[in-house]
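Possible race condition, two jobs.
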Amino acid sequence: MQQTQAAVITAFGEPTEVMDVPLPPMKTGSTLLRVDAATLCGTDIGRWKGALREGGKDQAFLKPLHLPFVPGHEICGTVEEAAGPVRDILGAEVRPGDRVISSYGHCGECYYCRVTRQTSFCAGVISYGHWQPEQLRGGCARHQIVPPSASLIRVPDGISPAVAASGSCALRTVMHAMEQLGAIESHETVLVLGAGPLGLYALAVAADRGAGRKLMIGAPERRLDVARGWGADRLLNLDEEPDAGRRVDWVLAQTGGRGADIVINCASGAAIVEALRMCRPGGRLSQIASSSGAEIGMPGALLFKGVRMSFPVMAEARHFYQAMVFLDLRRNDFPFDTMISSSFSLEETGAALAGMAELREMKPVIFPNAMPGDSVREYGRQTDGDIRPVRR
């Protein structure tokens, strides 16, 4: 095989184009994956629209976004070729036919790699979903090349490619957030802002770690229906309560006037002020959602509230591993597949991006090696077992 195909973003906000891409030479220690599933998230939408401009002095560890590029950073694939002996995160040799997800690559030599062990801040970090087509570092392609410095994590049997792909981003980010937050006590109330995949996974992990009460504010209603099935105790529909002050009052009413012990903001960077008002004095706030470069004003009084704030940026290899273990051990407690919405072929990647941007899709899944149309549904039955029909 000399080439593969990828869905390429050539203009911001426009339909993707499927292009033939030559397979680059395999470096020793790299792995060629046949992409089984690529799910989309809000970062993909921001990049597609051109609104998420990464890099610069404040984010020197991120590469600026340039056209054209292949989207998709939530990827589950099957090993087709390993260039030399390649081992997974636990030290077992990887062979063709193994199902895996991949952490990001890094240089292994810098201050962040060797001293602080925060590889997400490495200037040479190799994340996915924003590279030129010839790099094959995006999930919306028939193949992906995993760099030697990345860790491979096996996907447990019984976990669908779509759920595994979603776990490789949203859930591993939540695992990073939970590590920063520390233990959750049984008397504590956890408030999750945002009812998308990040918020749903945050809800599930908070419940699993013993939160006394789980509150969620988000929209639309169909996403809140999923949250009910995942164990939310109280829900507030953002569409029905557009006033921020009244939303704060709702949280205070649910918590004896104190505010939530822990707030996990998966909604937006701009919501951080509202999140601080919803958090009790001396509480904890995890700011997962990105600000997309927006300037955020904050009343000085909120800084004297004693709230301990944390900001998970991407994740380390251990968080990817923890995500797969959680999916495996808690599959009977949380219906993870209810998060996955419609399925699309590689040629329909643009439609999937548009559907998510318009909130018609919560977690669309691309099957790059399926054919367009009805065959996507058939492919989904073979690999996922419960894929919804394509929505156009």
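Job #2 (started ~2 s after job #1):
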Amino acid sequence: MSKLHDVAAQPSSAKTLALVAVSGLCMAFGVAAFFIGTFPLFLRPVSQELGWGAATFPQALVVCGLSGALAGPAIGALIDKVGVRTVLVWGMACWGAALFSMSFLTHSIVQLYLISMVLGVASSACGPVALTKLVSEHVQRARGVALGFVMSIGPAIGTAAAVTAAHWLLGVMEWRKAYGVLGGTIVLLVAPLAVSLAVLLPGRSKAAGAATAALGPSVEGGYTSGQALRSREFWIVVGFAVLVCGAINSFVGHFVAWCAERGLGEGVATMALSAFSLAGATGPLLAGALADRVADPRLLSVFLLLPVAGFCLALFGPPDMIIPALVLLGVGFSAITGLTPFLTTRYFGLGHSGQIFGLILGLCTLAMGLGPVVLGVARDAFGSYRPALPSLVVATAAAVLIGLALPRYRFAQSARPDALRPRPTPAGNAHK
């Protein structure tokens, strides 16, 4: 509780806590929960009705990831320039409308691609890029826990609720109406939620701007996206995050079909997916609390071991270990996604963190989209999931080794709760 007390102890604590809480609610009704989270349940009925193979409908995840990857840096730069308010509200509106339009899918692949493109752009405008920027600007002390709350509690509870709701909806109506209900819920509930968040914002984040301005231009600006791309830290973070996100999402995306192949019922699969989501609520909170306390970021690699253990249990363990395996995968997945924005601000500063995190998130989203398609292609080629799944263990094990290469932070937390101080950098090596 001390870390939550640290958040409350900052200036304008009630407003800060409200921003963190509402940001978490926005994430609960976001793309990760209502589209990606429910995707495994829609995969079979959509593919069967439209006559698609196992690799066709998952292409929506690829296009969504690709458009998010391309739009993420631009959305992040726009947020860095004009603030979160306008971008967030419009992003929420587009996201809800795009999900609703999934109910009008036909056999046209072009239509699927167009809808998925809008989903990808909207995911950048109203998702982690916007909300983690907002939290990072207003929370310095206990930033890891605050980001963990936004990146874990909201998406985890939202995904569990969305999966349960989608399972029920698909049991009482056909998939088109189910998508319509989910999309309509976003339009009706999330848009007012985003407006409430916008009301809390003091114009273009004046408080955060004043805090960073007091530190001097080098700290306020931090790394530009070009400088980040040329840094070793950027590619280390991208390396382990992409491997973990791609491997786990490919497995989760085909989990229901894989369970059916193993003779496990859809009820067990749904329960395991809910456990994956609910367990994920703890990952970023635990990782954030550890990140706030330790100076050596390599210690955070302990969370990279969880997906390795989860895959080993799921693939090589008995059927009754499926739910524990999904719990480990959920904690590991959410811990890594929750640490990514924290590491972005600690390695590259706040000034361009929206654009830099947009780059990282876009690449992770792209990996999350490509993973299910690659696994689907392998399933169609081999006639079974079994031959390809051990590669997921290899990928997550490689992520552990990459995480152990994390260097010390460049921007460390100051003794002041509202400031960051840059680590001293040897002359000639700044922003390398």
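The radius of gyration is 21 Å.
Logs attached separately.
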